Amino acid sequence: MGFKIQNGELYKYEEEGGVTEVIIPSGVTKIGYDAFKNCFSIESVYIPDGVTSIGKEAFYGCGFLSDIHIPDTLKSIGYGAFSGCDELKSIYLPDGITEIKESTFWSCGLESIKIPDSVIIIGEQAFRSCKLNHISIPSGVKRIEDYTFTGCHNLTSIYIPSGVTHIGMAAFWKCKNLKDVCIPDSVIQIESGAFFA
Q1: What residues have CB less than 8 Å from 6, skipping those under 6 apart?
Q2: Distance between alpha carbon 142 and the CA centroid of its chain, in Å?
Q3: Is the entire prediction scored with pTM above 0.85?
Q4: pLDDT digits 0-9 by tens, 42-68
Q5: What is the phi-psi region of residue 16: left when phi exceeds 0, alpha when psi lies from -120 to 50, beta otherwise?
Q6: For strand 189-190 and strand 157-159, is the pairing parallel, antiparallel, or unpaired?
Q7: Residue 1 pLDDT > 70, yes or no?
Q8: Torsion angle, alpha carbons of 22, 103, 123, 187, to 10
Q9: CA atoms of 132 and 61, how far apart (whole Å)
Q10: Under 8 Å CB-to-CB from 108, ≥6 apart: which residues?
């Protein structure tokens, strides 16, 4: 397969016609920036144990990616890593990840995700325009950033834990089906348009 690997980093995959399943070789510890960007034919990716990071926009625009195996060794996911993965309905995130960066799943097909309790930061636009039905925010998160869940039209309920102090601008903008939300007493600031449908 068309893997380009240097010092344990898979920094580029050259798409091969007709290949829909990719198994990343053992020994890789990092998936680099743009490594699989716009690889339209890929439907399935197996990431082996030992990989600790997925770089910025690594799987950006992989519109047919529907199945990805994430190892328990993963510690970080870069900005926009799965943005535009329309067919990705669910994904497993292991304990140990502390941050979901900006735009990680923007315009992704996600219908469900369990955010591990280790996460303390969810970046701006992280789940913008996803297809989530329900989301539970981990107890370590203190802020829901701007546009985090904007355009999640299918979102009907969300759990916001005690400890969250800030709900950002347009955080739930255009979540027109959101019916079940309890804002804890710890929240001291709700920015403009946070719940504007």
Answers
A1: none
A2: 18
A3: yes
A4: 999 999 999 999 999 999 999 999 999
A5: beta
A6: unpaired
A7: no
A8: -120
A9: 19
A10: 82, 83, 84, 85, 86, 88, 127, 129, 130
Q: Are 67 and 91 in contact (CB under 8 A)?
A: no
User: DSSP characters for the chain?
Assistant: --EEEETTEEEEE---TT--EEEPPTT--EE-TTTTTT-TT--EEEPPTT--EE-TTTTTT-TT--EEE--TT--EE-TTTTTT-TT--EE---TT--EE-TTTTTT----EE---TT--EE-TTTTTT---SEEE--TT--EE-TTTTTT-TT--EEE--BTB-EE-TTTTTT-TT--EEE--TT--EE-TTTT--
87: its two tokens: 């067919």
Please name the amino acid found at residue 73.
T
- For residues 120 and 140, is the Cβ–Cβ distance under 8 A? yes
By DSSP bridging, strand 3-6 and strand 9-13 are: antiparallel
Which pair of tokens denotes residue 94? 């292991």
